[in-house]
Amino acid sequence: MRRRRIFGAAASTAVAAATSTWPAPVRPSRVGTSDVIRLRDDVERLLALDAERGGHGLEQAALAGAGEALRLQQQSATQRVRQRLYALAADFTATAAWSLIDAGRLDGAGRRLDRALALAGLAQDSEVVLQVWNLRAMLARQRGDFPEAVAAAQAAQTTAVTRRSPLHASLAHARTAVGLAHGGEVRAALRCLDRAEDALAKADPAQPCSSWIAFYGPAELYSLTAIVRDVVGHPEQAEAASHRALVALPDTYRRNRAYTTARLALAQLHQGDVEQACATSGEVFTIMAGTPLPGRMRLLLGDFQRDLLAQAPAASAYAWMDRYRTEWSSS
């Protein structure tokens, strides 16, 4: 056994010595559109995984993509290609931040978003700037900092892309509505929802859009409407919006379907329909079967459990907890 180890080590040393004299691989002298397309394909693969199972767990892959985009900056390229590489690095870094947000690991997400915003500025890309402010609004809301959530969403409204794209403007208004609702500004929140609906009605669904915003459309607006309506005390309208969101959601958005289903359960619970709410919440585990629940979804189910304990008979609440404890702990 010792002899084999010595031989293996010697062989490894010999191979290393021999290959050290080989010429280094020839690198392209100029970075071009093909490199940009390759990295864009990598972003789209990450986004497809996010839609299927959630963004949690994608941070390292996203950071590796950002590192590759910045490494290519060291090679010769046109100014246009350089800006596109900076935009991709910002996109990857924002995706890394989203991974932390979706996982419920909020501490490092702000730092990633700061970096993404700086890269988006270097890219001179207002759409990526909006992408970052949108995530900043989501992060602030999860932290319970509703004034910052509103300020970030309003910053998204001021980006140049919102002036030329009704789709992007709609998202910015909808995100503002969510922050205002949580801050108790009911009328302002509902006005923003109206603006989001008006803007989305003007958007051309056939118009190509960036991968990161492909999730946004009627289904997502219905889902955000459900959140706003439930938070401001309109659970019946929240339930109706959740149902409309579930009908409109594409099959590929499994994580969003599970999250909207959990919101539906909350709206039903807030109307006092305990039995139906418990049944609906159980569908979340069925939808996400075989995939760990994102931390953000766990937090939402935690809200459901808290409200269930506060509103339902103790027997019903503990029956729900006993029934889904295994699924929750194994997810």
Summary keywords:
331 residues; 3 domains
Report on this model:
The protein is mostly helical and 331 residues long. It has 3 domains: 36-124; 127-207, Tetratricopeptide repeat domain (Serine Threonine Protein Phosphatase 5, Tetratricopeptide repeat), CATH 1.25.40; 245-331. It contains 16 helices and no strands. The protein has helices spanning 2-19, 33-53, 59-72, 79-103, 109-123, 126-143, 146-157, 160-164, 166-182, 186-202, 218-231, 235-248, 254-269, 274-287, 295-311, 314-330. Helix 2 (33-53) packs parallel to helix 4, helix 9 packs parallel to helix 11 (218-231) and helix 13 runs antiparallel to helix 14 (274-287). The model is unreliable at 1-27 (pLDDT under 50).
State the domain count. Answer: 3
Largest sheet: none
- Series of H and E elements: HHHHHHHHHHHHHHHH
Helix content: over 70%
Tell me the total number of β-strands: 0
Q: Structural class of the secondary elements?
A: mainly alpha
Overall 3D shape: globular
Determine the strand fraction and express it as a percent band. Answer: under 5%
What distance separates the N and C termini?
44 Å
Radius of gyration: 23 Å
How many helices in DSSP terms? Answer: 16
Q: What do the pLDDT scores average to?
A: 88
Low-pLDDT residue spans: 1-27
